Amino acid sequence: MTTMYEMIMDLPLFKGVSKEQVSSFLEKTNVNFENFEPGMKIVSKGEEVKTVKFVMSGEVCASHVLVGSNISVEEYCSYGRVLGADRLYGMSTGYSCDVIAMTRTSIMEFSKDQYVKLLNSDSIYLLNFFNFLSRRAQRPVEALEEFTTGDIRSRLCVLLSVLTDPDSIGIQIKGTIANLAKYLSVDQKSMAEWINTAEMQGLIAYSDGFMRIKSKIAFLS
Length: 221
Prior knowledge:
The protein is built from 8 helices and 11 strands. The chain has 221 residues and is of the alpha+beta class. The strands form 2 sheets. A 7-stranded antiparallel β-sheet has the order 2-7-4-5-9-11-10. It has a 4-stranded antiparallel β-sheet with strand order 1-8-3-6. Strand 10 (204-207) and strand 11 form a beta hairpin. The radius of gyration is 19 Å and the shape is elongated.
């Protein structure tokens, strides 16, 4: 059975640390564990990021709302998802999306000040943080360079590449055909035809205003 030490060591911001380092971290850091029942909101969009949070168990949904479009991208994540680390500094220090527990979820968190001390304690923490931030900073550039045809699928690929994490376990886009067509600058007939074709290709499933991406890898390839 996986121990708490091993779970922490496998988190993206703790990769490569030893059990001794994890032990020291737990001894010196005021770590809080909180459980959330299904439907409970873990963080709210715009809320100031004061702690670094990690999903330790359960499943959460990160809802990215496209303002003024009646469209949202809902990303499902589980163990290892980091919440807030990319918003600790910079011009925008509020959470970029709502995160809601889909199942009973356990969250580990500690304060921004304590994380700064951790970064200064060993270069491996600093390197992990740099890698985490670089990964997110590079995603938009790579998406814009790769998906250039300007058709419906290409534009959706940019959207998913920028907003969702490579490690997410599920993605769906919430939006009516009319709203999707408006957002993508196509007519409703073209949007409906594309959805029908994508369903036949096994890329998506569309029902009641929800477009479920069956496989992000397949959709982006």
